[in-house]
């Protein structure tokens, strides 16, 4: 009887290990950016542009509006002694593949390239650049470490990026 119980428990463990659902889904992303949750940037693969001679610091986001695949974030950062608030409109898209993360495209703009004052060339899309950020909730700001898996995922997705924070 004890051998049968051991076999059943091993079978359950093996079944559980094959139940991998891949990276987070769009629904997980929506839960992450839940209402009234302040989210801070721990690290990023790109350097923010200086504003008024200062590098932005203490960057955070909070959901302002979420409807279907449209997400509006209230964001802020500090420069010098002032805090700048702004709104980011983002579209959430599901990438193909089981292990593909959801994508958040923010402020994708179309622009027209001017070769001279009178000649407008057709619409062009700016080049897409993968930018990665490590984010954490405000309620976890007391944690010093414990982001090892997140850091590893960050390095896998942005192998040539350097953490700037």
UniProtKB/TrEMBL annotation:
Superkingdom of source: Eukaryota
Signal peptide feature range: 1-15
Lineage: Eukaryota, Metazoa, Ecdysozoa, Arthropoda, Chelicerata
Keywords per UniProt: Signal
Name under which the protein is recorded: Putative lipocalin
């Amino acid at each position: 009887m004890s051998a049968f119980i051991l076999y059943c428990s091993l079978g359950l463990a093996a079944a559980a290990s094959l139940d991998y659902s891949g990276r987070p889904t769009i629904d997980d992303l929506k839960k992450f950016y839940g209402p009234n949750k302040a989210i801070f940037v721990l690290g990023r693969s790109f350097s923010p542009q200086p504003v008024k001679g200062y590098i932005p610091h203490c960057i955070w986001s909070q959901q302002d509006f979420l409807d279907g695949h449209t997400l509006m974030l209230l964001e802020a950062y500090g420069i010098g002694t002032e805090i700048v608030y702004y709104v980011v409109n983002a579209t959430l898209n599901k990438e193909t593949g089981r292990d593909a993360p959801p994508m958040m495209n923010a402020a994708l703009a179309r622009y027209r390239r001017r070769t001279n004052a009178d000649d407008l060339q057709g619409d062009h899309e700016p080049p897409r650049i993968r930018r990665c950020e490590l984010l954490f909730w405000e309620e976890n700001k007391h944690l010093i470490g414990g982001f090892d898996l997140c850091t590893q995922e960050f390095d896998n997705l942005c192998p040539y990026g350097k953490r700037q924070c």
